[in-house]
Amino acid sequence: MVKRISRRKFLGSAAAAVAAPYIVPASALGRDGTVAPSERITIGCIGIRGRGFHDLRWLIGNPDTQVCSICDVRKAQREAVKEFVDNTYGNKDCLTYRDMREFFVERPDIDAVLIATGDRWHAQASIRAMRAGKDVFTEKPSTMTIAEGQAVIETARRYGRVYQTGTQRLSEANHVFCIEMARTGRLGKVDTAYAHIAGGEAIMTKNWMPAQPQPPIDEVDWDAWLGPCPWRPFHQSYVEGGWRGYYDFHTSCIGEWGAHTFAQAQAGLDKSHTCPVHYEFVKNTSGDGMVCHFDDGKKLILSAGDKYWYGPCGERFDGERGWCGSADGYSQPDVSSPDLLREYDTVVGEYVIKTGRSLDHMRNFLDCVKTREETVANPSVMHHAMSTVHCANICMWLGRDMDYDPEAESFINDDEANRLRARAQREPWAI
Amino acid sequence: MGNMNREGKINMNMKTMIQAVTVFACAISLLAAPAPGQDKNPVEILQSDASREVKTEAAHQLSHASDAAEVPALAAMLTDPELSHLARYALETLPAPEAGAALREALGKTSGKLQIGMINSLANRGDKEAAPAMIALLSSGDTMVAQAAARGLGKLATPESAEALKKALTAENFNRKNRYAFADALLMCADAMAEEPAGAAAIYDLVRGAEVVPEGTRCAALQGAITVRKSAEAASLLKETLAAESAREFDAGLRAAQMLLPETAVADALVAVLPDLPAERKVRLIHAIGMSESDAAGAGLLKVIEAGPEEVRTAALLALGRLGYTPALEEMAALAAADEGAVTSAARDALSYFPDGAGDKHLRAMLKSGEVETRKTAVQLIGRGGLEDPAPLLIATAKNDAAEPVRIAALQALNTHARKKQMDALISILLEKGAGTEADAAENALKAICMRTKKVDPETIAIGRAVYGGLPDGPKKNVTAQVAALVSEGKQIIEASNAHFGDPAPNQRKKLHVVYTVNGNRREKTVDEGRQIALIAATADPEMVKAFSKALAKAGAEAKPAFLRLLGVTGSPDAFATVRKLAAGSEGAVSDTALRVLCEWPGPADGSNVEEALPFVMDLAAKTDDDTLRTLAVRGAVRLLKQDAAEGDARLDHYAALTQQARSPEERKLLLSGLAALHDVRALEIVFQQFADDAVRAEAVQAAVSIARELGKNAEEAEDFFNGKDLRNWEGDPAYWSVEDGAIKGHSDTEIPRNTFLWSKIPAADFYLAADVKLLPPTANSGIQFRSKSIDEHGQALGYQADIGKDVWGRLYHEHGRGKLDWTGTAEEAVKPGGWNRFEVLAVGPAIWTAINGTPGVACADLAAQDEDSGRFAFQVHKGPPQTVHYRNLKLVHNPPLEMAGLNPEALIKRLHPILPETADAK
Q1: Which residues contact B459 (CB under 8 A, 6 or more apart)?
Q2: pLDDT at position A95, please?
Q3: What is the pLDDT of residues B850-867, one digit of tens each?
Q4: What is chain B's mean pLDDT, rounded?
Q5: Dihedral of the CA atoms A70, A74, A78, A84 (nearest 10)?
Q6: Which of A290-294, B712-716, B890-894 is least confident?
Q7: Do B84 and A17 touch (CB under 8 A)?
Q8: Which residue of A has its CA nearest to B602?
Q9: Which burial class, exposed, middle or buried, applies to A141 when counting CB atoms under 10 A from its CB (0-12, 13-18, 19+)?
Q10: Residue A259's closest CA among A375, A349, A358, A390?
């Protein structure tokens, strides 16, 4: 680990210094401060494994939630989640479902869903849930294609649903500080942001694992697991998280972290609702160093490794008055001069009071379920960060520079790239 | 992963690793090249009897690269259940009209799932010509098909589609189960009718009134029905909705309101319904108004903050703040100065962040209040960012306010807001107050300015020499110019990497060694490849150092300690000299504080580069009689050593010296915490010296474990130790030693006159050795020499021997030297006499372990050893009657991890007992 210049104590906790952005009405609270069951947000879970359990613990720790069901194509996971939820509440009430379609039809009482399936199902499940009148917290990366992102935006708007993608750093104080420093001009003019991409490859494999006997549908509903993706034979490793790196199932090393870091970088550049117009192809396998240009000359630069960070999922903003950045594991943001941290509490406090957004990503979602406000990682924020991911991926796949029109959402003079904006979905699935 | 698929192709990471060499060409080929092993074009592959996997890969390629000429071939596959999706994968995104025609034709020839696929692809293409066929399918007996057709028509959103869907939703001859899909589709049609709001409104109204349609869909229609209408009409429907009994309808109304705000009629409607709503709905509505940028609603909210339930008033205050509604400021300021719990706290939040500085006037007015509490509140709000550049005002308050609590609050706020401009004023406050709460607050504010003004300045770093390669003895390269160039670019963190310096020693573990100066002070650092050197030099502003020194000279006895501490915070060499002079002085209290400040002197990681700091605290620790001061000095020394104030042998020497001086367990624990961070086998030795002291034994074990963990990271298995065939790399008398069935055999048919040894040519220091040993007869004696040397022409051995033989198995002997070193082993019970026995020896630094057949033998830390940290291995045939010994399955690991006999590092280290020099002498 790199030694930091300043070992100064963290500047007090901005999170504690400011009031909760949305106040749970006293009428909803019982005498002991617990939330009356009738006032709780009822939650159904879809596809919970490693990361999903993290989200579920996070969610269930909020007193105004009631997790009441799990829908999963894997029996083992249905049972594990039921056991966890039942143990938490000390009852046997968590219901289990295998088929998402039945789940939505049979549970009109559920207010919101937590989606932590593999990436290929994030948008598909979100859209179905919102059409069924449910609010959605979904893991990232939340789309496989640009077309899926458009459908998420359209569906959320049409059904008036609250949607949050799991880019939780947008709600973490250190990242909020960096984003606001850049966005509000405190760093001077900021024309470059660096965004961290994961280790690995932009070019993904289309190969298959060798076939294994397909388990009974009750154990693993393999057809539903595959969902809209082209058919391939069952192999146990896929359903245990080994789907990363496959073209059909993943959005590459660029999407793995870019889903987070592009959203962070674009927020600071004030580009959350658009995406770059020009993508410079780089001659390597990961996209490391790719420069993406916005229409006004601002730049988002992809960076792998630890050139700009000493932790995962970082972003950094370079401005006239210095630079600041953050990544996982930082006790305070990394800055070109300690003086930039002077107004840490002010900057973060102002963000919370003015936006009404919590510094807890899950809490922000739950607050919005009540206020019906747009979340911090709403469909448009998600879609425009993921559009950058998809454009950068397509740039790497086709091996040439790309020009993109964010209004028309199409590549300019590149039919081949335009065809990669969508994928035909395997019958009977559709968005 | 590196999985192999069934054709034995390497995929994923392995494949891409190989490609890394020829990155570019291969990267492109993955997407564009024909499927592996095929030179046919992708359409031909789909038509061939290729495997399904290869066909799928071909379809992927066609998804962006097919053309109109390929449509007929693909069209033929649309009706084949196995190929239909793959053909659509290629056709759906192909702009040529031929693709649409093919899909329409297939729509009529398919049923069930395949037909659904056609519907979806045509809808995604926006193929309006497909609408009539889809309309016909709305009455399909297959509900899945009918629903897909409905959604497809929703996407096409032609007028005919809307009409057909309306009929399907209401007419009794359509399946009621499909109504929710018909309703969804109608919403899509209505959303697409921007030019025709009346038509859209009619559809929304139809859907929200429809039977059997789920509540979520009806609420979506309600939202659409409100937002599509003109203001007055929308407002009226909105009022009705917000008063509706259903919570979900209220939600839909709320969302519709958010979409329409800041439209005045809508804002008015919200304010109008507000009084009649229950508190919980009020809060949510007020929240929405606050987010809306609507000026019109402010007046309505103003009434709300005066009285009513706390959560409603709170929400209204925050909303008025967000709206920047200036008429509310008066009341807001009054509430901010009051004592009304959550309401007051919301008023303060709102006032602090009131937009465009409109709240400034009120904050300034509060500052002039006759009430101390009000003034204090004002200072706190200003401190939270309530004013632009508040420092001058805060200084004035800190100087002039009549009430101490207000002055203290102002000084606390200056912690955040003071800049160098405020330094002189703060110094004079500190000089005036001398000591006490206000003085402490002024000192803290000065400290904060000093920390903030420290600069990282590449110009203070000068690179003397930099070398990269297989240090110390391997091929290397002078990289001074490259490192200097990186530093001048502003990099303070240099990674030891081929990317910067090329590869002077391929396939070797490399190091980067840099000699450099910071502010003229010479330093050097060495790191392994892949790690980073931080050449950080953050220096305090010289003007602050001067100002603190000047103030110190002027200060009375009360204020002197504060300025000494502030000089310490600067970490500057000049400040060090000043403080040191006072430490040597005769003023008791001043000298005492000065000594403490010197003990806490910042190290390199805090940006200070005073070379004398470490020698000073080392010297103090050695000489002082004051127990408290010695502990402070030891703590300071450890902190500096942890921050690389000294390196390599010098650092170890310092630790060794401190170990001698440390008196209390607390001091020893500090030392152990520093030693734990070293990745050096010599540090282990110092740690083991503490094993005998029960007061620090637990910390010593922890430190040893943490050192050992790092040491194990460079483990390397020796490949040439024993090849299983002959005695290459070994030397010994062939009359005794040979290789038989892959085992080394030591044998004699006759009486053996003297111990005889087979010597390995491979030297080792820290190692793990394992071998299967068979000894016949079981009463004979053998042994494994390690870290030993041959001392005469007969190859006699001097050094450690892991003993083998009846009653000695697994014990530790010292051949021709110290004799029985550790005779406590209990592994003997695990021995299979006359059979093969797995013998393990692990030696790391002074620690030595043995095990037999997984049962631990001895575990000792030999602190009496002299120059015995490396040497050679030898197998023994003991003098005496005829015997045979076999060694096979030999494994030698250099720099091994601490694992043996199934024990983890902690368990192994806990077993250790020290062999001290006296004990060994006594034997």
Answers
A1: none
A2: 95
A3: 999 999 999 999 988 888
A4: 88
A5: -110
A6: B712-716
A7: no
A8: A7
A9: buried
A10: A390
CB neighbours of B600 closer than 8 A, spacing ≥ 6? Answer: B568, B632, B636
Q: Does B416 touch chain A (CB under 8 A)?
A: yes
B70-78 long-range Cβ contacts below 8 angstroms, 24+ apart: B70/B43, B71/B96, B71/B98, B71/B99, B71/B102, B72/B102, B73/B43, B73/B46, B73/B47, B74/B43, B74/B46, B74/B102, B75/B102, B75/B105, B75/B106, B77/B46, B78/B102, B78/B103, B78/B106, B78/B109, B78/B110, B78/B114, B78/B118
Q: Find tokens 């046919």 and name the residue.
A: B40
**Collapsed DSSP state (helix, strand, coil) of residue B513:** strand
For residue B355, the chain A residue with the least C-alpha distance is: A354
Bridge partners for B738 per DSSP: B745
Residue of A1, A3, A396 to mutate, interface with B, max B Cβ within 10 Å: A3
Q: Burial code of B757-771, b = ≥16 C-beta within 10 A, e = fewer?
A: bbbbebebbbbbbbb
Residues 75..104 of A with a Cβ closer than 8 Å to B: which? none
Contact B419, B449 (CB under 8 A): yes
Residue with the larger pLDDT of the pair B351 and A214: A214
**Other C-beta atoms lying within 10 Å of the C-beta of residue A303:** 21
A353:B16 CB<8 A: no
Separation of alpha carbons B12 and B2, rounded Å: 6
Give residue B508's identity as a one-letter amino acid code: Q
Tell me the C-alpha distance between A142 and A129, whole Å. Answer: 14
Of A231, A350, A420, the CB nearest to B353: A350
- Which single residue is written with the structure tokens 């054709």? B7
Verify whether the Cβ–Cβ distance B534 to A3 is below 8 Å.
Answer: yes
- ipTM for the whole complex: 0.93
Spatial CA neighbour of B134 closest among A19, B125, A107, B848: B125
Task: Give the integer Cα–Cα distance in Å for B658 and B653.
Answer: 9
Interface of A with B in 3-22 (CB under 8 A): 3-8, 11, 17-19, 22
For residues B202-225, average pLDDT: 95
Q: Give the A window 150-209 contacts with B, CB below 8 Å.
A: 154, 158-160, 200-201, 203, 205-209
* Closest to A56 (Cα-Cα) out of A125, A66, A24: A66
Q: Return the DSSP state at B384.
A: I
Residue B76: predicted pLDDT: 94
**Which residues 384-413 of A have a C-beta within 8 angstroms of B?**
396-399
pTM for the whole structure: 0.76
User: Which of A208, A334, A415 best tests the B interface by mutation, with the highest count of B CBs <10 A?
Assistant: A208
Q: Check if the beta carbon of residue B122 is closer than 8 Å to that of residue B104.
A: yes
pLDDT, tens digit (0-9, with 9 covering 90-100), for B114-130: 999 999 999 999 999 99
Q: Looking at chain A, which residue has its C-alpha nearest residue B342? A: A19
The yes-or-no verdict on residue B5 having pLDDT over 50 is no
**Which ranges constitute the DSSP H helices of A144-290?**
146-159, 173-183, 222-226, 236-239, 252-268
B897 token code pair = 């991890």
Which of helix, strand or coil describes residue B839?
Answer: strand
User: Quick check: B414 and B438 in contact, CB under 8 A?
Assistant: no
Give the number of other Cβ atoms within 10 Å of residue A44's Cβ: 25
Predicted pLDDT of residue B519: 61
Nearest C-alpha neighbor of B238 from the set B278, B191, B274:
B274
pLDDT for the residue B30: 46
Q: What is the pLDDT of residues B354-408, one digit of tens each?
A: 888 888 889 999 999 999 999 999 999 998 877 888 999 999 999 999 999 999 9
Taking CA atoms, what residue in A is nearest to B415?
A342
Instruction: Indicate the SS3 state at residue B514.
Output: strand
Which of B56, B249, B531 is the best substitution to test chain A (most A C-beta atoms within 10 A)?
Answer: B56
Angle between helices B329-337 and B342-352 (to 10 degrees): 130
